[in-house]
Amino acid sequence: MNLSINDFKYTYPSERLLMGPGPSNVAPRVLQAMANPCIGHLDPQFLAIMDETQQLLRFLFQTKNPLTIPVSGTGSAGMETCLVNMIEPGDEAVICVNGVFGVRMTEIVQRIGGKLLRVDGEWGRAMDPDLVRRAIKGKQPKMLAVVHGETSTGAFSDLAEFASIARECGAIYVVDMVTTLGGMNVPIDDLNIDVAYSGTQKCISCPPGLSPISFGPKAMEALDKRKTPVVSWYLDMGMVKSYWGNERKYHHTAPINMTYGFREALRIIAEEGLQTRFERHLKHHRALVAGLETMGLSMLVPEKERLPMLNAIKIPEGVDDLQVRRALLNGFGIEIGAGLGPLAGKIWRVGLMGHTSTMRSVLLFLTALETVLKSQGFKARPGAIEAATAV
Amino acid sequence: MNLSINDFKYTYPSERLLMGPGPSNVAPRVLQAMANPCIGHLDPQFLAIMDETQQLLRFLFQTKNPLTIPVSGTGSAGMETCLVNMIEPGDEAVICVNGVFGVRMTEIVQRIGGKLLRVDGEWGRAMDPDLVRRAIKGKQPKMLAVVHGETSTGAFSDLAEFASIARECGAIYVVDMVTTLGGMNVPIDDLNIDVAYSGTQKCISCPPGLSPISFGPKAMEALDKRKTPVVSWYLDMGMVKSYWGNERKYHHTAPINMTYGFREALRIIAEEGLQTRFERHLKHHRALVAGLETMGLSMLVPEKERLPMLNAIKIPEGVDDLQVRRALLNGFGIEIGAGLGPLAGKIWRVGLMGHTSTMRSVLLFLTALETVLKSQGFKARPGAIEAATAV
Fold this sequence. Notes:
Two copies of one chain form a homodimer.
Chain A (H helix, E strand, L loop, with lengths): L16 E3 L8 H7 L9 H18 L6 E4 L3 H12 L5 E6 L2 H12 L3 E6 L8 H8 L6 E5 L1 E2 L4 E2 L2 H11 L2 E5 L18 E3 L13 E5 L1 H8 L12 H8 L11 H17 L1 H22 L14 E5 L6 H12 L1 E5 L8 E5 L7 H17 L8 H6 L2
Parallel strand pairs in A: 1-12, 3-4, 3-5, 5-8, 8-9
Antiparallel strand pairs in A: 2-10, 6-7, 9-10, 11-13, 12-13
């Protein structure tokens, strides 16, 4: 334990173009906001910043829910928060699984002693509502959970369909919006969503570290009526709500500077406007796909089920997955994502999220990918840039 | 949901002197580090930054433990991490309680189905080892947990004493170092501590958002031998260790920019040197106490049990707690802490943690407090500044 620790050569992060499944690129305004002086978690100034953050977050979720806050952990902490607060041991939970993040929900439900009803859909496709209808026939589950945009496959599901199913069977409707919030229209009040959670590092373009959640009236009622304490003290919304609400009762020290950054990222969204932002995501997604298909590549997900912010591209035969990703990162500073689980080695996941969703990103990526694929012997057809810019 | 959200008047944080129970003031270097570009959580550059962070953290904990990492949540998440990973339903856990944070541990143990053996000590005093010896006589608890420095009272306990007790009964020895790590000597390998956790926002002087933990061989063995899954997916160290270890297996997206700030705060500590840093904390604590006692104020905790970084001052008779704290904050930009639980209204908690522990803080605080107390009719005796500077 001597002081040679000071002899380290320290690593500094490069300016990557973040086109993986998140984090996305963070605007300088957000980074600068995080560098504001740290103040106390009960300082009246911080309490005002909390209120402003909640108002902006309600705007983004399009909700009136009082309990609309960033949880003090990354997206998976948000997932865990929603499940541990809604499910007591023995409660039946229907989990729709069409990718890695649905699987993750089933693992959490099992750990906390919930009675799991797992409905498996096809990976790379929207979740089929009829599968769920058949599986729950005659049952009255406590909760029905679906992943809006499966980050592992690039497909999105129809939230209105699952809202109907949840209403029919009386279940609390929980939606994972980690990838979609800020990039697709998810008006949670209009969609009758009872519980929603997301992450900051995807279409909100704030560094990872917080997880926005919103609990509606039905969720609050379930929270009040619990017979057992929430198994997690840290994520117990019955207590955390008193810190974010009018009581201002200390629970745990909030991540102060992350909250500054998050508020700034939400301000950028409010300034752009939701509709404009969603259209921007869609436009650049279409441009990317037009370019890729012109080159001769194909997408994993059928057109109508494709997420605009996460594009799953089939890796062409004979092309080395890892070599391509390394060449993009080392030669061009572009990060893209690998496939997960059964899709490992079969797809690339290319994000166009939040601040990253620009025509500049699309054109640079298409150009770099074409160059790298050529070096791998893949004959890309000409005209990708023209096709992309014509969208 | 219209765009009037852009008409907000936004609040910006002032440059406070943070002399509460944490967060402490953050050095500009740390804030600037957090504003570095966000990169991916599997980027080779970030993996290098993770390794450097772990090496620096091992230096601070004075340990060789491989699993020495920042957990992706604030200090209470670190507490929960240690308890949920070590305790399975039915396992007996001895929790020493001499303040709010001991109570918090008992709550977590009960939520996760542990068999709680609570030993109550006196609030405002070191935990008495004999109380624990008597309580566990003839028992073989799975775990023994003690809070090194009780942030709620300003007292610290003798870690070597509890190490002997844990060894005698074969228990896993867990220590809360939220307040002390970085400000007092806590060489966890030498002290035979199996599990330690802390926060970033106290003597490490990084904004809140991460919780440094270290698991020793006995803890790793307990983790391997578990019969039930860890109830928290997010905090399951059996999985998180594969991301921080050589496998680099994705678990959850790490808080990237918080990690930059944390690494920079650890570098500052390494540059200063541990011994110098501990002496600095002690010196300014002594200066503060000399000034306060000269003024005619008195401390809650007996001299030998006082934390150097958190000073519990008895509120003099006839002085209004809230008015004094408000006057310090609004008139001088100084934040101090209120009493918690049974000590609410009876003490002020004045922190001299990390970057805040300077003679400048001591002198400004004494001067401001004297001014405010005079306006409350309290007759401070003269000579506080002279007494402080003479230390």
